[in-house]
Design a protein that fits this description.
about 280 residues; mainly alpha; about 80% helix; globular
Length: about 280
Amino acid sequence: MAFRLPLDQPQRGIVKVARAQLARLQSAPSILGQRKSLKKLRALHRLGTTPSNAKAARQCDRLLRDTGRALGPARDGTALRDTLSRLVETGLLTRRSLVQILKAELDQFANEDSSVTIDIAFDAITAQVAAMDYSRVTLASLIAAAGQSYRAARRGRRRALTLGGSDAAHDWRKSVQRHARHMQLLADLWPADLELRITTTKEIARSLGDEHDLHLLGVWLEARHLPKGEHRAAAALQSAIRKRQRQLRDHAFALGAKVFAERPRCFRARLSHYAKVQLMTKFA
């Protein structure tokens, strides 16, 4: 089932999408796939939170968050290897001896069996999802929740610009991803507009994700005890990493200036207007 809610049956749609993501979580062949399903479930529950189910939603969110964090170390090991390979492919790292040393050290990371983590948590996640009551969910409540995720992403951009650095940019990425997933779920409100927003926010998230992976590699590289003959090449690599990080952040900030230019109340009003037009069209 597509990650999209039917506007005429939002309550039933949330349940169907949640079940589909649970199935994908259980069958995902990779850590990245598992974490993606967990994040989609979190976004779905955030969108479907109402005052009547808020307590259960918080419990479910914590379980999904903690399960995702347990997969973090295995994900980071994969990210380091992939990032190093991209640096070689793009010509930012050309010294073969340094490449061999770094790859050899990265290959020593044990490939953690993330399926064990998912197997342990899956029954608890399934029970929490089944316990969620979405009977009070309406299209208006979904739009209100989407407005909150928009506000958070807009504020996250301002905070990342003010603080600078990779940590703030990574925090912003999380809120951008949630906003993008909420727009996916509500895309049928106005596909021509919202699908473009989804594409752009995903591009922001990709840039910030690549930036964070470079940050992780830079920190890991700084902690290596390399042979003296590799120090100059390693310093040049660190410089190239920092330069590429700045480029990725600048690209994300520029896109974000357009995507998050609207005030939150105006954004919510526009989504509400889309909903009214859809309703009028349906019964015309």
